[in-house]
Amino acid sequence: MPETIVLTGLAQGMGREVAKLIARGGDTVAGFDVDAEGISSLAEELKGIGGDHLLEVLDITDRPGILQFKDKVLQEHDRVHTIVSNVGIGFFGPFEEIDLDQALRCLEINVIGAAAIFQAFIPHLREQGGGKLVAMSSLVGRIPFPFESIYTASKFAIEGMLNSVRLELQPFNIHVGIIEPAQVSTSFAAKIHHLPPEGSSYRERVKRFIDRDNELIKSAPTPEVAAERIYKVIKAKKPSVHNQLEFKSTFFMGLNRVLPMALRDAILVNYMKIKE
Fold first, then answer.
1. How buried is residue 56: exposed, middle or buried, by Cβ count under 10 Å (0-12/13-18/19+)?
2. Residue ranges of the domains in the chain?
3. CA 275 → CA 206, 209, 270, distances in Å?
4. CB neighbours of 162 closer than 8 A, spacing ≥ 6?
5. What is the 3-state secondary structure (H, E, C) of 46-87?
6. Alpha-carbon distance 83 to 257, whole Å?
7. Which of 27, 39, 133 has the alpha carbon at shortest distance from 86?
8. What is the pLDDT of residues 25-53, one digit of tens each?
């Protein structure tokens, strides 16, 4: 029986590829993104694939708009099976130098945005007797990286929020899955990588970090490969709570659990080539 899957942040990158996999699998895609041009072109692609879809241009910070979107989805579809929160922005820079107003925007989009879409549909999932919530987190949601303090904080928040929510929702047969990629070969990092100004105490180390990150992205999974793994989580009857997309992430998660902090720190700064 075809399912209805709600997916935010689907105009570009992994979200777009996941939306196409959902359509190819015969399920309905219901989603939104702030990128109007991306939504328009995705709608054309989904028409070519076939199947039903409902796409809107909507900002994740527009909470009344999210509730209206939820009502529209439920008017057209009696049952929604899975809610996938994929909206997110990056945030990069030495903590001492970051703009806290911009940091607040990152937390609003990455954390409260996910909370808003989940909260909107949970009553429906509960009343129908079950469903799934899937959230896009990151490796840095459990292993903090330097120069990504606010982004790391947002992903730690996603991890904590979903692990708390899953305990609340267990009696209602609502399952939770968290996806924790390291790098994916997209322009996501390039959009946020900016060197501190000349004279910054952090400039040289940040440059080394950026160079290393760009090097790692070259061998990272493509959006298509990442999407296939995300799609498996979405379609799983009872997804694992924590889901990595590649062996490297799983390996680092394992080290993070068993090694003492000093050794973990040494491995990380050496791996990112920022040791003094």
1. middle
2. 4-195+221-258
3. 11, 10, 6
4. 133, 135, 137, 176, 178, 241
5. HHHHCCCEEEEECCCCCHHHHHHHHHHHHHHCCCCCEEEECC
6. 29
7. 133
8. 999 999 999 999 999 999 999 999 988 99
- For residues 264 and 129, give the distance between their C-alpha atoms in angstroms, rounded to a whole number: 43
Would you tell me how many other CB atoms lie within 10 Å of the CB of residue 28?
20
Evaluate whether the domain defined by 4-195+221-258 bears CATH number 3.40.190.10.
no
- Nearest CA-CA partner of 77 in 53, 59, 55: 53
Q: Is 82 exposed, middle or buried (0-12, 13-18, 19+ CB in 10 A)?
A: buried
Q: Answer whether 174's CB lies under 8 Å from 125's CB.
A: yes
Tens digits of per-residue pLDDT, 187-211? 565 567 889 999 999 999 999 999 9
Tokens at 49, concatenated:
């694939």
Structure tokens at 13: 């990158």
Sheet containing 53-57: give its strands across: 53-57, 28-33, 4-8, 82-85, 131-136, 174-179, 242-243
The label of the residue with tokens 């290393």 reads: 212
